[in-house]
Specification:
This protein is mainly alpha-helical. Helices cover 67% and strands 0% of the residues. The longest helix is centred in the N-terminal third of the chain and has 42 residues.
């Protein structure tokens, strides 16, 4: 952030700040979308395979996934697990928790790797910027007559 702003000529620092903020907002938006996609897709695929291992397949597995999805959103109609055999209920709940944690784990690994790559690129590119041509901004002529809190200096 600071290196990026310092690399811009003083006359263009306002525009550089605007571009930096825009890139941050767009990056955050795409980052959240990608992370959510990873979590949801891994959650669904892991849950599918876990339900098959438990012995729930086809329409029953699809209906159960719908119930679990609606239950996580707080819909009261989704909390009806009465059609599920009691011996499999604990296994289904464990499978749902496992699928969600795997999705989060992988998405955090992807996020961490992305941050390491981005930090490396920033260090590599920004350290080659020549700051010697940038001019220091001169203080305002009345700056010595203003108190640090913005009040006029006495005397």
């Amino acid at each position: 952030n600071t290196d990026g702003m310092n690399a811009a000529p003083p006359a263009l620092r306002g525009q550089a700040s605007g571009v930096l903020q825009t890139v941050r907002q767009i990056g955050g938006t795409f980052g959240i979308a990608i992370m959510t996609t990873i979590v949801v897709s891994l959650n669904r695929s892991t849950l599918d395979s876990d339900l098959v291992d438990i012995g729930i397949t086809g329409k029953n597995a699809h209906a159960l996934e719908g119930l679990l999805t609606e239950a996580s959103s707080g819909t009261s109609a989704a909390l009806d697990f009465s059609k599920l055999p009691a011996d499999k209920l604990d296994k289904v709940i464990d499978a749902a928790k496992d699928a969600f944690s795997i999705g989060l784990e992988v998405s955090y690994i992807v996020l961490g790797a992305t941050m390491v790559v981005a930090a490396g690129l920033a260090a590599w590119k920004l350290r080659k910027v020549d700051y010697s041509g940038t001019e220091a901004v001169a203080p305002h002529p009345l700056a010595e007559h203003v108190h640090p809190r913005g009040e006029p200096a006495v005397g």
